[in-house]
Amino acid sequence: MSRDVLFFDLDGTLIDSAVGITRCVAYALEKMDQPVPGDAELRKWIGPALRTSFAPVFGDAVRVERAVELYRERFDQHGWQEHDVYAGIGEVVQGLHAAGHRLAVVTAKNEPHARRIVEHLPFGGCFEDVVGATEDGVRSHKPELIAEALQRLSLASGQCWMIGDRRMDIEGARHHGMRNVGVLWGFGGREELTAAGAGSLADTPAELARLLSR
């Protein structure tokens, strides 16, 4: 019997990328003479597509694109390295891979940046593919990203799980009728994930492994 295929979100699920993302957002805002909000507000930028978050700040598309360019400028130089791997998640990924599961990363992060990060993870080789947002933002929301992953890997949604820390991960999975797990060590939290309709919640990577091994 074939094993389920597991799609993992990146930020807030595999890595704590708060420092890199928030510093790059702050950099873009400063360069465009916008006030930089506090850390709690900046953390809300982790998860949604960049253009979605910049749009209310700048309004017009030209300035939004400039903000995205500035964000990526700093991320390309520094931000992609500014993260920590969550304790225990690497062992879980390696265990799932060894058990015969096919694994992929599905993230709203720019795909070239996401690929660079995953390639440098100690367990990055466990992932068959990394599906991320396009440079132009045409593909940037979770339903589109999951659809791209399903197409690339020639999968039916019923074969797959989506694992992530934000409501976008759960909503994307539900859009495709996929099973899903919300993880509680990231940036969304229990209330957000429950409201989004998470099928299951995992407090720790070890609990995630147990849920996926049932």
From TrEMBL:
A single MF term (Gene Ontology): hydrolase activity
Keyword Nucleotidyltransferase found: no
Keyword Hydrolase among UniProt keywords: yes
Entry superkingdom: Bacteria
Keywords per UniProt: Hydrolase
Pfam families assigned to the protein according to its UniProt record, in alphabetical order: HAD_2 (PF13419)
Protein name according to UniProt: HAD family hydrolase
